[in-house]
Every structure is written in C-alpha cells, then in structure tokens.
Amino acid sequence: MLHYLALSGALDHGTLKVRPMVLPDKYIEAGSQAEQYEEAGLSTRFIEATALKLLDTSTADVEVSAQ
C-alpha cells in the first residue's frame, strides 16, 4: 500500500515525500552490477534524478558529485 501511495503522489501534500526504489519484479539479464542497476532504474543517475524531482530542483541548480 505504501508503494502505491508513494508512487501515485498521494503522500506529497504533507512535509514528507516518499518514492520507494526497489528492484522490479522482472528478469534482469546477467551483467555487471552497474549494468543490472541501470537496467533496474537504480543507478546513481536515476536515484539523483528522483531526489531532485522530489525537491523540485533541476540538476543545474545543484552540484552533484561524480561517483
């Protein structure tokens, strides 16, 4: 239930915004850990974009460290 409420934005009207980032329930082709995270949408780039979206901030406004 939390997953649905968070992804639909139902929790965004208060002071807390939640977006669960979990491995999808699908087959992911074998590869390096980085390739699998990218395929699952859990790479550093994806996580940063999700956080910036919740903060209503573009990447131009925030300095993001390279990993």
Topology, pairings included?
Elements: H1 2-8, H2 33-40, H3 44-54
Describe the structure.
- The protein is flat and about 40 Å long.
- By secondary structure, the protein is mainly α.
- It has helices spanning 2-8, 33-40, 44-54.
- Helices cover 39% and strands 0% of the residues.
- It is built from three helices and no strands.
Radius of gyration: 14 Å
Number of strands: 0
Element order, helices and strands?
HHH
How many angstroms does the end-to-end distance come to? 33 Å
How would the global form be characterised?
flat
Structural class estimated from helices and strands:
mainly alpha
- Stretches where pLDDT is under 50 for at least 5 consecutive residues are none
Determine the number of helices (DSSP H or I, runs of at least 4 residues).
3
Largest sheet: none
- The overall pLDDT average reads 78
> Strand-residue fraction?
under 5%
Helix content: 25-40%
Write down the oligomeric state: single chain
